[in-house]
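// run 5 | inverse folding | seed 20
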């Protein structure tokens, strides 16, 4: 009998504890799509990326042109001239490769620029979500866009529009 009472009391506390937790969802993709600063930042990044890629493509094209010219003239060149042309081609290819790494590598310029443009927006969203969750008593806020295991969630617990309103954007 004592075991039964103890198990019942523990089950009651567990049920009350589970009931006390509140959850909410946000859709970060939806929120970001509705923030003009995010769209402007993405456009800036795309433009810069295209400029850098054009610079790299120009070097690659120069190397290819030099190589074609080298192939057609190689029979008429001395060993010294061939070595010099090969070095020029390899130098251009290396410069293109180095620029690609500098601009688009893991710690490249594009990554740094993305960080500098996106971090303030993400911080602002995080702070808005945090304020809403603290004021409404949510234990957890889950990003619906990145949580692939959510099969269904009630739209009632989606606070994306509330986050947008808190940030000063209405949809």
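// decoded
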């Amino acid at each position: 009998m004592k075991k039964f009472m103890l198990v019942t009391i523990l089950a009651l506390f567990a049920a009350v504890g589970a009931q006390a937790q509140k959850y909410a969802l946000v859709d970060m993709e939806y929120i970001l799509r509705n923030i003009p600063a995010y769209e402007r930042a993405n456009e800036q990044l795309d433009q810069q990326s295209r400029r850098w890629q054009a610079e790299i493509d120009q070097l690659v094209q120069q190397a290819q042109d030099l190589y074609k010219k080298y192939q057609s003239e190689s029979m008429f060149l001395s060993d010294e001239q061939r070595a010099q042309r090969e070095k020029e081609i390899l130098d251009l290819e290396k410069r293109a490769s180095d620029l690609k790494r500098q601009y688009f590598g893991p710690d490249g310029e594009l990554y740094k620029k993305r960080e500098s443009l996106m971090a303030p927006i993400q911080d602002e969203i995080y702070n808005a979500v945090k304020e809403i969750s603290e004021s409404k008593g949510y234990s957890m806020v889950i990003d619906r866009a990145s949580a692939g295991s959510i099969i269904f969630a009630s739209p009632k617990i989606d606070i994306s529009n509330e986050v947008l309103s808190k940030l000063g954007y209405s949809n």
